[in-house]
Amino acid sequence: MTRKLVWFLAVAGCLVAPRAQAGSATAAVAAGMKFAMEDIAGAFRKVNPKDTLEVVYGATGKLQTQIQQGAPFDLFFSADNTTPVELAKAGFAGSEMKIYAIGHLVIWSTTVDATKLTLADLADPKFAHIAIGNPKVAPYGKRAEEALRATKIWDKVAPRLVLGENITQTAQFVESGNAQVGLIALSLALSPELSKKGGFAPIADALHQPLEQGFIVTKRGAANAVAIRFAKFMETKEVKAILLRYGYTF
Q1: CA triple 231-236-242, angle to 5 deg
Q2: What is the pLDDT of residue 205?
């Protein structure tokens, strides 16, 4: 084989199967995923040490608005399955929406034994302040409202509700003592930071619409190699194990 032929085959091989190039991507993530996503992002960085993955957290509705206004997000992880679809219909998606987990609601408190509480108990006026996510921008807040209505105590608790901008802020209201109990994501209640500070009781999934959580690669991220790698990484067993640890199901 001549040197020219060897050189040609080597170059052709590089063209057909280029090596992954390091780069950066930014993911917009629903606040309830904060602790789980930190573990997932950490695991991704270990296997892709040259890649830079930045994560921004916020309420699903507000992140949606930011994407529509041109925020530089390459991926969007929602706390529901409808917001990513809405973005796709409006032309802001670079991939199909994929469900990555199903979330769950719990009653959580740092001042009372929440493990013995039911939603019906919250009708008692002794719970002067009850925190939930703002139903207008936080899917967990919307599901909390559905559960309270299904339990037929919405009218009794509505005047005592403290609305968090996102589900993380909702938990902070309880943690700070500004609310005695909160309806928060199970993933937060199981996090290393909050699990030591309070107990929780599960809220029956039948009381609200499913919390199917989906993600998309945004239109901006469609040509971003790091974003594509991270989207594929979300399908790995390692990620599923992390999500299970934080109470998510599939």
Answers
A1: 100
A2: 98
